[in-house]
Each structure stands twice: as C-alpha cells, then as structure tokens.
Amino acid sequence: MAPSDLTHPAKPETLFDRDAEWDALVAFSSATRTGASLGVVSGRLRQGKTYLLKALTAALGGFYFGAQPATQAESLRRLRDELTKHTGASPPNHWRGWEDAVDALLALGDARPVPIVVDEFPDLVRQSPELPSVIHSAYRRLRESGRNNRARLLLSGSALPVMHRLFCSASPLHELADLELTLRPLDFRQAARFWGIDDPGLALLVHAVVGGTLAYQQYSGDHAPSGPDDFDAWMCRAVLNPRTPLFLEAHHLLQEETDHWDRALCHSVLAAVASGCSTQGEIAECLDTTLTEASHCLALLQANALLHGEPDAFRPNLVRLHITEPLLAFEHAAIWAHRSALEQKEAVEVWRHIRPVFDSAVACPHFTQVCRDWVMDFADPAIFGARPATAAHGSLPGPVHRADLEADVVVRGPVGASSGALLSVGMARWDEVMDVPHLEHLRRLLAMLGEDVAHTRLACYSGVGFAPKLRSAEADGDVVLVGLDRLYGVDSPPGRR
C-alpha cells in the first residue's frame, strides 16, 4: 500500500509505548481539512522525538529535515539538497533565503495532507532569528492565495526555553499552532516494562539511576540487570564503566541543556539539591553565594525542566525544589565526588564505598517521589475519597530546638468546593519495615494541623513491608498501606501489597 493511502498507519513495533503521541501526530498529519497547519513537538534530549518523527514521515510519505548548529547558508544548502532528493525534482539554482525555502516546504502539501518535519528548529533560529516571522508570513500568503494547500508542518526542538519563547503568546507562531505535543520521559511503570524488569524493587533501583529516558538503555549496553542480585554488578559494568556512554551522560546532558551558562555553578547547585537543600535560601547558604546568583542558576535549570519547584503542602509560600532527571540526581548525590576514583580504580571497589550513599541519598528520596507519582497517576480516587490534585512534601515548624514535623506524601483534592481538602497524610520509607510508631507520628502531625482533617486518610508507603500490627490497623480502616507491588500494579497474594 502506498504511503498516501495510509489514513491511520499502525504504530511501528519498534516504537515503545507513545500510543497517544503517535495517534495525535497521525491525526494531525493526515487531517483532510483545507489549509496548512502547524504543529509543535518539544521535549528534553534523549526522549525519542527524532525516532518518533522519522517513523511518522516514513509511514505517511512525509519529509524530515534534521537541523544542526550551522550557518544559515549551510542549513539552506542542506535543506535544498534533501528536499531535492525527496521530490526527485530539479533543484532551484539558488534560494534567496528562508522565504524561498519555507515556500518550497509548504508546497509539498499542495497535492495532499503531508507531514513536513523540521527537527531541532531552535538550531535554525539561533542563526536566523527572522525565521518565525518568515513562516508566519508564508502561512498568511497561503491563506490569501486561496490555494488548496494541506501542508502539516511540524517544528520540533529539545531546547525547552527556546521552544517556549518561540511559541508563547507574544510569538508570531503562537496563533498558527494547531498541535502542541510534549514528549516526556516514561513513567516508572512504563520504564519497568521498557527495561523488561518484573521485580518491583529492582525496577525502582534502576529507575532511580536512569529514570524513564529511552536512550539510556542503549547507552548502558542494551541490557538490564538479570535480577536483584545482579544490580551491583550491572552498576559496575553498565553505569560506572568509563567505556560506556552512560558514564559521562550526566555531564553531557547538563552541558547541552545549559548551553554557555556557568556549568560549574549549575553542577554545584544540583549537588546542593541532591544533598538535601530544597529551598533557594538553603542552596545559596550551602554554596556560600548570594541569593541573586543562586536564583539565576535555579531559574535556568527550571526553564530546562531539570529542576522543579513545588509548594510545601502545609506552608504554600515555601517552595521546595527537586531534580527531575534521576540520572542527574544520582550523579550529584552519589558519583560527583568519586569521578576521579572511578577513572583510576576498579568500579567494584568504588561502588562498594558509594553504595550506602546511593541507598540513603538516591534510592530513598526517589522512592518517595515515585509514591507521589503513584498517587497522581495510578491510585484509584476511592482510596483517598476524591481525585488528587497535588501530592507533595509537607512540613510544620517543630517546637523550639526541635526538627520540623514532616510528611512525605501529602495529598490534597482540587481547589473548589472543598478548597483543596486534605485527603491524605503519609510517610514513605524505602528501607524500613513500617510499624505502629510511624502511624503514631502521622496522628501527632494531624493533630497539629489547623484545618479540617475529619476525612483525611493516613498512609504508609514502604519498600520492604509492614509489621503485623500495622496490617491489623489497615484491616480496621485506620491506615492505607502501599508497598512496591501496589506501586507497580503487580498482583500479590492476599495480605501482601
């Protein structure tokens, strides 16, 4: 069957998951309505955007062009050569500039709906800032000409701040966009399936290192640990091995995402966050720098989606920061101080020294974040009495000279009639069998809250299990217990979740 006859081609078997993204792109690209359309595809590096867009153009007989950092003249020459190869027509003697190039691209849609992909669009705009206005003018001319053009132009990019600026409300391209699609990393359940890991504990450990970025499987040698007993050996041969691409990936990722910025400061900021500093003030104090200087770096990392700020569940004016990319959190919490040792000694020796740090500073906070993700993405709303709107860390100031009272997973409902009702307060412990004292801690915290807690559910989340008395409390309806099997949606024997 010719590509033009494919109204909704099946997603390629080699493309893992991404069902919704594939359907959205196919629907946009093959829509028969008259008029050229514009779509935007964004997402951080290594998420599979290029693979997805190449598969789309192959399935629908479209055109793909991957931009590179180059001068305008070189980019135009490459585009002209690839367009000529695609159409088989004689190339124009010379393009006067992007006006001619954009007109030639859109002309591909004169005969039928066709996807036209320009990947890494920000690389072109850096050398040709006028390009967004050129595209806007080309679309206006098409509308005024009355041509039955059905070009489906897709502009893709990994530089998130640039993509946001190019398609914000003040941009000439904003009003043209009919599709805005963001490719995000796989969630923790999808990642377990992608890596082929059935054991939830092992899946969480691997996810704490590589997250849901598809490319990292290839970077680690295309294989996962064979089982829980193989995790340490896998770390040494696939992650901490200087001969594998994953070894320096955290460094390359930060270098690519932050462009020409002060990378030393960015590394130090991430190391401070990974060590437990979660507010701007704590980070500035840890780095012995001004709040202004720290704030600029934090804003950059947040704009590139490497850091995320979230209001404290009990003190909303207090914004807590966490690293969104697990590989960066792993790097700066456990590996950063041992890089030179890894290049000089056997990985097994260094990892033996690092492993306790990994367990406490990487696996524990990652488990807590996965518990929050489970609440938002997978938990049945009936568990907490309503659909959650937020799941975050919460803290109350402790008595004088005492630590704050904290809860790891505070669940609130939607703001409205219930005004962000407090649905649940919970503790998460990766490496502790949880028991009645954990429940008592939650009850004390609940008693100190100055809000309606009549319907608030207490919850305990554990990576290793629950004591019999806590199981009895669960049976009495006093607490919600969530273990690894429940997090990963794994069927388990009665009494074990």
Features:
497 residues; alpha/beta; Rossmann fold; Arc Repressor Mutant, subunit A; Trna Endonuclease, Chain: A, domain 1; 3 domains; five-stranded parallel β-sheet; five-stranded mixed β-sheet; 22 helices; 46% helix; globular; disordered C terminus
CATH class bucket of the largest domain: Alpha Beta
> Per CATH, which architecture of the largest domain?
3-Layer(aba) Sandwich
Task: Going across the biggest sheet, name each strand in turn.
Answer: 2-3-4-1-5
Tell me the major beta sheet. Answer: 5 strands, parallel
Quote the distance from N terminus to C terminus.
49 Å
What would you note in describing this structure?
InterPro entries: P-loop_NTPase, WH_DNA-bd_sf. This is ArsR family transcriptional regulator. It comes from Streptomyces gibsoniae. The strands form three sheets. The protein has a five-stranded parallel β-sheet, sandwiched between helices. Strands 8-9-10-11-12 form a five-stranded mixed β-sheet, sandwiched between helices. It is built from 22 helices and twelve strands. It starts with 18 loop residues before the first helix and ends in a 10-residue tail after the last helix. The protein has three domains: 3-182, 3-Layer(aba) Sandwich (Rossmann fold), CATH 3.40.50.300; 189-368, Orthogonal Bundle (Arc Repressor Mutant, subunit A), CATH 1.10.10; 370-487, Trna Endonuclease, Chain: A, domain 1. The protein is of the alpha/beta class and 497 residues long.
